[in-house]
Amino acid sequence: MYCFMLHFAPYSAFSIIALVICFALVCIFEFVNGFHDTANAVATVIYTRSLRPRTAVIWSGCMNFVGVLLGGISVAYGLVELLPADVLSPPNGDPAVPMLISLFGTALAWNLFTWWFGIPNSSSHCVIGALIGIAIGDALLHTRDLGNSVDWSQIWKILRALAISPLLGLVGAGGLYFIIKHLVHDPELYQPPQGDKPTRGWVRGLLILTCTGVSFSHGSNDGQKSIGLIMLTIIGILPATFALASDSTPRIPHVAEYATSAAPLIEQYDHDGLRDEAIAAVGRLSRTDAAHVVPSVLRADMYEVVAGLKVTCPPEMSPF
């Protein structure tokens, strides 16, 4: 396995190929995502003959694109922050291939499955669930405490939004429909379209306006998901270029001091195998020589020690 991962050295042929494949998967995912979400925005204007189907889809796609351009990247950062740093960028310098395979495999499979069977689906829920599953799986794989190894505050913040949005839609749409029914008494407005006859001009304009707004909002929020997936890809495959601050001031001379102060806390670790690994890492760090340091080895040892400290002491007491 180690020899295989060596092929993924930064800017090697394998890394570039993996990067291209992952970018292609992001594009495929967004293409499949369009099967579901664009239909939500254009359904009313097509059903009421307010726009021709081809015109409606093209218009919705353009508004989605504008939404992505103007919507910022806060949602993309929210996705990236769901993963622990050692999953996003493995400490030994290897690319985060398992993370990327798990994420893209799950997201694409679920989107295709729901599209094939005609099941309404939110790809955002799928991607976020996959990221949470990866974070929890990594903690269980290394027998770490879930409370400290997973950023639950970030997870709960996103899950709350996902849980509240359907309720807000239900209450808002139901209340607005109730108000319109009591204020607008024209029975023709509540009848299904007849043949190819379009709706009234003002209703048609209102439907096109709502289609435009939904498409723009979808791009400004949901479109950032693909930006987040691209960020995860370049950070996971080329962490030295896109994840690490190469211009930061090295603090290697202090590593030995920090490692020595961490040793008594690591001794309290109640998992024999992982405690021994962390103690061995402490020993190597305490003998760190700034002139002969190997960055990937140093980083791996520091992650090992920090993982142990997460279990044995609160963050404010950690020397790292």
From TrEMBL:
One GO cellular component term: plasma membrane
Keyword Transmembrane helix: yes
GO molecular function, one term: phosphate transmembrane transporter activity
Membrane topology: Multi-pass membrane protein
Transmembrane stretches, start-end: 12-35, 56-79, 99-119, 126-143, 155-180, 201-220, 226-245
InterPro entries for this protein: Phos_transporter
Chief site of localization: membrane
Keyword annotations from UniProtKB, A to Z: Membrane, Transmembrane, Transmembrane helix, Transport
BP term (GO), one: phosphate ion transmembrane transport
Subcellular location(s) of the protein: Membrane
Protein name: Phosphate transporter
